[in-house]
Write a structure and sequence with these properties.
The protein is of the alpha/beta class. Helices cover 35% and strands 20% of the residues. α2 packs across α6.
Length: 163
């Protein structure tokens, strides 16, 4: 059984001054931390979902992902700056401390905030919304562990939120 570890968020936020949508996850998975960018697990449906929403090719590497985000005016980060967590299990998160979202919100033209998954949404409501004063729209998790939501439903829900 994997032990809970105190971890610190090491991925910088991704945004441009003209970013209009901020998408927040909970905390980077071990695969994302290993590869150095968001939604790095090959089984995660995030990039495939966004590509379908915007009718583009699925970005294949970090530079293509960044270019994709720039074109679509999307910023990425996570709600949590540090926490205790077992592997990639959102349900195991304890002692979460929030990232300072003003880093993005004061620099970019963010018009809407979206969260990926229930944990990110709940933590955003508890840790961030009281400080930033802006609500977030919850979206289903694109994690390979979330098989309750089909790919087609993911695309539909993300399309409604993004377009």
């Amino acid at each position: 059984m994997q032990e809970s570890k105190l971890l610190f968020h090491e991925l910088p936020p991704f945004f441009e001054n003209d970013s209009e949508t901020l998408i927040l996850g909970s905390f980077p998975s071990p695969k994302s931390r290993e590869c150095g960018f968001y939604y790095g697990h090959p089984q995660n449906r995030f990039w495939k979902t966004l590509a379908a929403v915007f009718e583009e090719e699925i970005p294949a590497n970090i530079e293509e992902k960044k270019e994709f985000l720039r074109r679509q005016k999307i910023a990425l980060w996570d709600v949590i700056a540090s926490c205790e967590i077992k592997g990639a299990e959102d349900g195991s998160i304890r002692r979460a401390k929030a990232n300072d979202l003003s880093v993005i919100l004061n620099a970019a033209a963010i018009r809407k905030i979206l969260t990926t998954g229930k944990t990110a949404f709940c933590l955003y409501q508890t840790l961030c919304e009281p400080i930033v004063g802006r609500p977030a729209l919850p979206l289903p998790s694109t994690s390979p562990a979330n098989r309750a939501v089909s790919f087609e439903e993911l695309v539909c829900r993300y399309r409604e939120a993004l377009l």
